[in-house]
Design brief:
The longest helix has 23 residues, at about 5-30. Helix content is about 30%, strand content about 15%. Strands 1-2-3-4 form a four-stranded antiparallel beta sheet. The chain is elongated. Strand 3 and strand 4 form a beta hairpin. The chain has one domain. The protein is built from one helix and four strands. The protein has one helix at about 5-30; strands at about 35, 55, 60, 70. It is of the alpha+beta class.
Length: about 70
């Protein structure tokens, strides 16, 4: 088994977090705090066409998959 240097793992993690932050910003454009939005990870929607994620002032919380992400 080959181990990767910690620096490479740190850089890959940072790049992945940047991609996730950009994806989150696309989902919350135009959404006001307290509004239900589509979850960027699970895309869950109930039979009554209600989305599972809620937009807070500076975060997104999905009650279906458990996603909790701070956005800026």
């Amino acid at each position: 088994m080959q181990l990767l240097p910690e620096k490479i793992i740190f850089e890959a993690r940072r790049e992945k977090m940047k991609e996730l932050d950009n994806a989150m910003k696309e989902f919350v454009i135009g959404a006001v705090p307290g509004e239900r939005i589509e979850c960027p990870r699970c895309h869950y929607s109930s039979r009554k066409n209600k989305f599972s994620a809620v937009r807070f002032k500076n975060a997104i919380k999905c009650f279906s998959c458990g996603l909790w992400r701070k956005i800026e």
